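Format notes (please read before filing issues)

Several people have asked whether sequences and structure tokens are stored in separate files. They are not. Every record keeps both together, in the order shown below: the sequence lines, then the token lines. Line labels are part of the format and must not be stripped during preprocessing.
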Amino acid sequence: MKAIFIAFDQAYYERIIDMLERNNCRGFTGWQEVQGRGSNSGEPHYGSHAWPSLASSIITVVEDSKLNVVLDNLHAMDLATPKLGLRAFVWTIEQAI
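Then the structure lines:
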């Protein structure tokens, strides 16, 4: 199993939830208001007067067989609207109870 941590502009929230549902990735934990700045480009998401937008994040654990499908869908979203910002990070899950 793999954990996917997804950090993204708030505008993506519903689209990402829908994509996870379409791919039978039922379990996730989401944070709707997080702050951050991408490592390569894009605008900061600080929720401040100067940088008013905020980011969101989701972590989900998926079967290995679903990993590439989810990542491909996320990458397609990012390519379609690169100025919004979307990143995904993957960890191997050793054990779950």
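For reference, the curators noted about this record: The radius of gyration is 14 Å. The chain has a mean pLDDT of 91.
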